[in-house]
């Protein structure tokens, strides 16, 4: 696709759904639809699941949040009669993306075995050796 084809597509920056951002910092949705540190790859995965055309632009950045680079261009069909999509507006898209990112496999916490097993005394604990540095004693 060329730039002329995608210039009218909606742009989604990760800061639009970032929980740590304020509305003046670039967030566009209510706190219930936000996630911690969203990435452009996660946004693209959700758009793919919603069967929306999307394109990642990694070299672009948001004016208020420039260090994390990247944005996603998403095509929302204008004719809703022919679309099977659940998303019609950009706000609906942002809410849907924010609610679906926590369900991604990359966001699911794997059970950790080291936290569930109690340590047996003497096994697996670091031992501290007492060192007798300094003066031995005065006579």
UniProtKB/TrEMBL annotation:
Major subcellular location class: cytoplasm
MF (Gene Ontology): 7S RNA binding
SUPFAM superfamilies per UniProt: SRP19
GO terms of biological process kind: SRP-dependent cotranslational protein targeting to membrane, signal sequence recognition
Basic residues bias (residue ranges): 130-139
Residue ranges, annotated region (Disordered): 105-139
Keyword DNA-binding: no
Name this protein carries in UniProt: Signal recognition particle subunit SRP19
Native species: Babesia microti (strain RI)
Record lineage: Eukaryota, Sar, Alveolata, Apicomplexa, Aconoidasida
């Amino acid at each position: 696709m060329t730039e002329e084809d995608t210039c009218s597509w909606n742009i989604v920056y990760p800061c639009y759904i970032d929980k740590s951002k304020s509305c003046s910092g670039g967030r566009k949705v209510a706190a219930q639809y936000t996630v911690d540190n969203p990435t452009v790859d996660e946004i693209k995965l959700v758009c793919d699941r919603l069967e929306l055309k999307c394109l990642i632009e990694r070299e672009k950045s948001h004016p208020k949040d420039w260090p994390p680079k990247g944005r996603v261009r998403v095509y929302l069909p204008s004719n809703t009669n022919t679309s099977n999509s659940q998303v019609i507006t950009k706000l609906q898209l942002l809410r849907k993306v924010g609610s679906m990112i926590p369900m991604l496999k990359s966001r699911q916490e794997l059970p950790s075995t080291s936290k569930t097993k109690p340590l047996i005394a003497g096994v697996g604990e670091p031992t501290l050796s007492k060192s007798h540095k300094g003066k031995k004693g005065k006579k």
